[in-house]
Amino acid sequence: MKDNFTRIVEFVRSLYPEDDFIPLHVPRFLGNERKYVMDAIDSTFVSSVGEYVNRFEQMMQQITGAKYAIATVNGTSALHIALLLAGVKNGDEVLTQPLTFVATCNAIAYCNAKPVFVDVDRDTMGLSPDKLKSFLESYAEMRAGKCVNRMTGNHITACLPMHTFGHPCRIDELLDVCKKFNIALVEDAAESLGSYYKARHTGTFGLLGILSFNGNKIATAGGGGVIITDNSDLGKKAKHLTTTAKVPHPYEFVHSEIGYNYRMPNLNAALICAQLEQLDAYLADKRKTAECYKKFFAGMADVNFIAEPENSRSNYWLNAILTGSLEERDKLLKATNDNGVMTRPIWKLMNKVEMFKDCLCGDLVNAEWLEARVVNLPSSVRI
Ligand SMILES: *Cc1c(COP(=O)(O)O)cnc(C)c1O
Fold first, then answer.
1. What is the pairing mode between strands 312-313 and 156-160?
2. 133 CA from centroid of ligand 1 (Å)
3. What is the pLDDT of residues 167-201, one digit of tens each?
């Protein structure tokens, strides 16, 4: 009888029969990508001013339902600006999950603020509303209407959950907790383009949200990001800050504050506009792939497929499974990677990486549990 690892390798190969080496996630350019990029070049508008940047922002408003969408050079810069606009200042604390990509925490550090790590839920792999509530009940104190960490004396200004691999977290419950403590909710929806929680697009529950269009995401600009919000004041400020805080003037240089050169170039916007035209097809294809994996793993003891959480519709950006233990996880990683099928463990927890190892943590039992077990599987679009 074949062992589980051989069966997994053969199954993934059956999903991607044309590939010798099967990567985790690669982009596909099957629509108007070449046409729009060539058009941007021909127009000479290749930098941060151009028709495609504006078109991209309109498309993102339509897709997410957010009133304002501001294009940025990448998801990390979008996070940086979103946190600044949420009022995060020097020395403040931002509550986030340890189970995330490093960019989430880097953006907090760019504001000279400190991440504080609160546990995730096992089913969503995203920040846990119950753990957030109990953390705040033991540490938080309201002073003059502001939430203060009574152990450190720092302001707790914002909460930054992440929708892991496209699976929405319990964002409405997180919002309720944040409201009680007057904490701004900012969503790292970098991975969840096309994912909905209770029929609403991820990233639109908080004061601000961000998405990424890096090369490994479900749709790519080469590099790119977007800030979304319903707040007109914040929307305008986001545009201002990401465009060097330049005040419109017919010929003079007028800058009202220290701004950032974070606006997405038109060349990248051309690529993402073409990609977004195909988003519905990508999403349908990804759900099909997820369904295949789900069925396959239903027939395998010791390995569980992670399906979309309750009340949500996931984009299934990266398919993930749960192995029985750290030992099993490592065996599976080796057996698949040795055989040309790329798999990866979930991120090392952020409270363990060098830069953030001294940050304050709540109990992280679920994050620890997931860290030892989760493996991502090849998930590129198959059309
Ligand atoms: C990809 C990603 C980002 C950052 O996006 P970039 O466009 O690569 O800067 C931020 N957070 C998470 C969770 C991501 O997966």
1. unpaired
2. 26
3. 999 999 999 999 999 999 999 999 999 999 999 99
